[in-house]
Design brief:
Number of strands: 13
Distance between the termini: 55 Å
Bound molecules: 5,6-dihydrouridine-5'-monophosphate
CATH topology: HIT family, subunit A
Strand content: 15-25%
CATH superfamily: HIT-like
Largest sheet: 9 strands, antiparallel
Shape: globular
CATH class: Alpha Beta
Strand order of the largest sheet: 2-5-7-6-11-12-10-9-8
Order of helices and strands: EEEEEHEEHHEEEHEEHEHHHH
Length: 396
């Protein structure tokens, strides 16, 4: 997607870890926190007071990195010192008035309101003359630098296209020129045929571990119908997007039985007035965890000086995830979705076409790699124990 190589070395997963162990955030939060600057009715750090909002709530970031009135200016000294002023706007979006919720714990109907707000912000900000890119994102969890557990995300609107989006646009444009189709729609077709890295899906969206993933539990959200921005989603597709975001985040939470940290966000077509047929909208989830709720992946050393490196292949991710994912399917550790959600899930009948990519990947990968003899031995042992406990067969 960005035309950068990733070093994959799965044989390293056995190495011991005596390094940094993170604190796990306390699971129980209160529904309203009088000291929270994002809860309804509370004062914010900048002095403004939040309204008594009952759904989503959007406001201009009181400490915005990008400001609309930044004067134009440029520095250029000997091709060495280059700088340019950048105007823009930063917004904060509270997903819910409830301090204790997360996307995984919200109803599909309530996450759908967040999707609507994202689409509206993208259109509103993108239609402002100086804005060429709108970046929607959520930092979840203290480990990712999130300042507050209240469910919220941010929207940064830039005068220029930021680096990550620019790399994708360049790769997408070249692919489109060469193939006459978009890189991600062809990639999705391939993944749906192979079924090796698909985590979950519904009628309109697929969540998968990209072939080129860097982070151990990275996922990519792709729409089945090609759209270049959230604004182009139909009514039904918006509900499906809400559903797939819940499916992914619930699986994450269940994986290590923790409120899973991540940075997630959507890449959408630049808002420069061009149609961008090469650009399919998509979402990225970048979680920092490596092998447990407390051990995270560090992008240091070789990664900083050389290139990204990962210990778990995208498919092998299933091995780590399989047991928690099995539990996840039968008994989610997150709260049972609110009653309103159960109703809306029934009425919308969003079809989940694959139970769990984690489980699938586990089975597929386990039997196709060198682990096979160990797994067979394990199954034989299990079989013996079963026969013993049911009084059949002889103990040997
Ligand atoms: P993060 O948790 O992802 O850092 O986002 C919180 C944002 O909320 C952060 O950018 C803003 C911070 O500037 N903020 C306000 O705008 N007003 C406040 O009263 C506190 C925090």
């Amino acid at each position: 997607m960005t035309r950068e190589w990733v070093l994959v070395s799965p044989h390293r997963t056995q190495r011991p870890w005596q390094g940094q162990v993170e604190d796990v955030a306390p699971e129980k939060q209160v529904a309203f926190d009088p000291t929270c600057y994002l809860c309804p009715g509370n004062p914010r750090a900048g002095g403004a007071k939040n309204p008594d909002y009952s759904s989503v709530f959007v406001f201009d970031n009181d400490f915005a990195a990008l400001k609309p009135d930044t004067p134009a200016g440029e520095v250029q000294e000997q091709d060495l010192l280059l700088a340019r002023s950048e105007s823009g706007r930063c917004r904060v979006l509270c997903f819910s008035p409830r301090h204790d919720l997360t996307i995984a714990r919200m109803s599909v109907a309530d996450v759908r309101e967040v999707v609507d707000a994202w689409a509206k912000e993208y259109l509103d900000l993108g239609s402002q003359g100086n804005i060429r890119s709108v970046q929607i994102f959520e930092n979840r969890g203290a480990m990712m630098g999130c300042s507050n557990p209240h469910p919220h995300g941010q929207i940064w609107a830039n005068e220029t296209v930021p680096n990550e989006l620019a790399k994708e646009i360049a790769a997408f444009a070249d692919y489109y020129k060469a193939h006459g189709s978009t890189l991600l729609s062809d990639y999705l077709k391939l993944e749906l045929e192979k079924r090796e890295r698909v985590v979950c899906s519904n009628d309109d969206f697929v969540g998968l571990v990209p072939f080129w993933a860097i982070w151990p539990f990275e996922t990519l959200v792709l729409s089945r119908r090609e759209v270049s921005g959230l604004d182009q989603l139909t009514d039904g597709e918006r509900a499906s997007l809400a559903d797939i975001l819940r499916q992914i985040t619930i699986r994450y939470d269940n994986l290590f039985k923790t409120s899973f940290p991540y940075t997630m966000g959507f890449h959408q077509r630049p808002t420069d007035g061009q149609p961008h047929p090469e650009f399919p909208m998509h979402g990225h989830f970048y979680p920092p965890l490596l092998r447990s709720a407390t051990v995270k992946k560090f992008m240091v050393g070789y990664e900083m000086l050389g290139m990204p490196q990962r210990d778990i292949t995208p498919e092998n991710r299933g091995q780590v995830a399989a047991r928690p994912a099995l539990q996840a399917l039968s008994r989610p550790v997150t709260e049972t979705p609110p009653a309103s959600d159960q109703k809306s899930r029934k009425s919308k009948k969003l079809k989940t076409t694959q139970l769990s990519g984690f489980v699938f990947s586990h089975i597929f990968f386990s039997f196709s790699m060198t682990q096979t003899p160990r797994i067979l031995r394990f199954l034989l042992l299990k079989g013996k124990m079963f026969r013993r406990s049911h009084g059949r067969g002889s103990a040997s």
